[in-house]
Amino acid sequence: MKVNGSFSSAIRPICTGAIAEMNTFESMFGQSGGRSCQAKFRGQDLNAELQLTLNDVYKAHQQTLNVHSKNIRLSFPAGIENGQTIKVSGHGAPEVNGGPAGDLYLTFIIKNTTKFKRDGSDLHASVEVDLYTALLGGDLLVDTFDGKVKLKVAPETQSGTLCKLKGKGFPVYKKENHFGDLYITYKVKMPMNLSEKEKELLHELKKLRSHEH
Predict the structure, then answer these.
(1) Is the pTM of this model over 0.85?
(2) CATH number among 3.40.50.150, 3.90.1150.10, 3.40.630.10, 2.60.260.20, domain 117-192
(3) Which has the closest alpha carbon to 121: 78, 86, 63?
(4) Domain residues of the chain, as ranges?
(5) What is the DSSP letter of 158?
(6) How buried is residue 161: exposed, middle or buried, by Cβ count under 10 Å (0-12/13-18/19+)?
(7) CATH number of this structure's domain 5-111
């Protein structure tokens, strides 16, 4: 992957002691034997963006980048945030006169194409529940980021009910085996294209409810 970036910091001169030091006698009499202090300049820092997907940063992984026509292989921890910047020392612009190279600052652009909304290490998602399961209760198979789980839907569950799945969220950055939570919001789905028999039963239910109240 080609990393293109813009330079951000000014060149800073570095004059090492070994080169800068002059013999005291030679300094006093202006005789340095042709030697002079040659300033060593630090290479410029390089800013670049790296685009990844939410699936990419769910697990620790390695990425090969091409910087200044040189491939470098970097390891990234799980849980990197969108907009987060990390420093890669010594991989900025080349030095001048033998000084140190600059640093590379990588800013991550995380693209989310999943059904989950990320909030730090927590995830949020909406799940449809059919009317009958919402009324009577039952099992519901839902997606998490690393597979499916079966939930028990309580009888008379209302649309908008929030269910928390502890530890089923996103990895916490640089904290191995630590995860956020997944919050599921139930959305009760109304049945469509009712048969005459279904309508008749619903009318009977409506009458029963009206007599109770």
Answers:
(1) no
(2) 2.60.260.20
(3) 78
(4) 5-111, 117-192
(5) P
(6) middle
(7) 2.60.260.20
End-to-end CA distance of the chain: 68
E-assigned strand segments in the chain? 5-7, 13-14, 40-41, 46-53, 61-67, 70-76, 85-88, 104-111, 117-119, 122-130, 138-144, 147-153, 162-165, 182-189
Q: For 125-183, how does the pLDDT look when each residue is reduced to its tens digit (9 = 90+)?
A: 999 999 999 999 999 999 999 999 999 999 999 999 999 999 999 999 999 999 999 99
| Sequence letter at residue 149 | V
Residue with tokens 């630090």: 42
Least confident of 55-59, 125-129, 177-181, 203-207: 203-207
5-111 and 117-192 share one fold: yes
**Residue 109 CB-density burial (10 A; 0-12 exposed, 13-18 middle, 19+ buried):** exposed
The amino acid occupying position 183 is Y
Look up residue 35 and give its amino acid: R
